[in-house]
Amino acid sequence: MVEVKGNRKYSSAVRDEQAARTRGRILDAASELFLERGYARTTMKDIADLAGVARDTVHAVFGSKARVLTALIDLRLVPDGSVANVTQRADAQAVRDEVDQRRQIELFAKFITVLSIQLRPVFEILRTASAVESEMANVFEEMDRFRMNNMQIYARWIAARGPLRVSTKRAGEIIWALASPDVGRMLCDELGWTQTQHATWLSDTLIRTLLPE
Description:
By secondary structure, this protein is an all-alpha fold. It has helices spanning 2-37, 44-51, 55-62, 65-77, 90-97, 101-130, 134-159, 168-178, 181-190, 195-210. Helix 1 packs across helix 2 (44-51). 27% of the residues are buried. The mean pLDDT is 91.
């Protein structure tokens, strides 16, 4: 009986590993196609064909094309899948643990602008798709609410270390606006700013806006 249980555990581990590889292939294929063709012109069959799986497999794993895209966003936020929320990453937790508010904001600006580089291409796919498909408009609103919730977390961490010039809620709203992927797209992708320039601007602006003189 012990041997049977061991074999079952091994088989389960193999299945889990195979499922993870299949999921990874699907996401890699979707990322390539979405970036190359755009969301609207990419079908679930296209994704399945490039990933080398059946279309039913893509549906079974993700449910819909919209959820393939949100899974890509999740992957960019937490590439190793080690935590449930991006605010639980070690580089985000460093913002929480820092005791100096100015340094907190500097750490946040560096973290979020590096993250923005990874997130912007997929977020731009979502933004443009939301303009033409009602389902994607709902997903875009969902992602924006998720981002607002996270920015409120950062605002509370900063407020916990000292006074702010505005309410904590308003601070979160300001961070949500200034640290948005759209601002990163305009500054870096359109105007050619580097990540360091973006981080310095964001840090300086947030310090002047949020912290007392």
